Amino acid sequence: MLDLVSAYENYLTKVKQASANTVASYMRDIRQFSQWLRESNSIDIVDASKLNIADYLAHLESDGRSGATVSRSLASLKNFYSYVVSTGFLEHTPIVDIHIDRGEKKPPQILTGREIELLLSQPVCVDAKGYRDKAMLEVMYATGIRVTELIQLNVADVNLDLGVIKCTGAKKTRAIPLYPAALRALTAYMENVRNSMIADMDEQALFVNVSGIRMSRQGFWKILKHYQASAHIEKEITPHTLRHSFAVHLLENGADLTSVQELMGHSDISSTQMYTHMINQKLKSVYAKCHPKA
Prior knowledge:
12 helices
């Protein structure tokens, strides 16, 4: 029932006012399930039974999807069917007593100092794209901002004289300093090439794509994967890898937890404490490997 799926998407956007990323995630899960139902059972999503849903989740697991991914898909479907029941189209949700073992949560991937140097050295500043890519990677590692925050930066958010950027997160705005190399890369991009890349002189976006409009999340992800490959880094790198590495490297070099929390825009310090635990685990591992009495 495509109309109900579309109506639910409109409900998430207009009524719940969910973020664009949340809506995209929910709708992707729902449409993938709907497609699987049509291809495997020739039935519509509103006619699915508890058994159909259980079979689909088992299919995801057998396809190698992680426990977290399967659990998220179940949550998306639960919310969708709750909405359908609220409209009166269904009397009861087909999702009853279905539970997923999320499995052990893996710690985030962290790059070593050497890997960071390799990655940041990949963009070659011989053309506009090279200057832009160099600036984006340096700013990401210098500030630890989220990829959404990076692509939402406007020219007005940059103060080159003070060497800071203004980052507006979900709940507050924070000013984050840039280390000298990042400031040089950003200055070179803004002063030498940005104006030649933008499609419209009224464009406010700091970082733009080859079409001259604001860079997308997907666009930055592709850029990052390209430089990961050229640096021959075997670890799986995502935009969040740079954010995690920023936090761990600051703490390893003596930064206090509260300052790192403020820089990262964490509302709860427990989110920042995760990195302290990672450092402690790393030290224990080094101790076990290197101490002669261990």
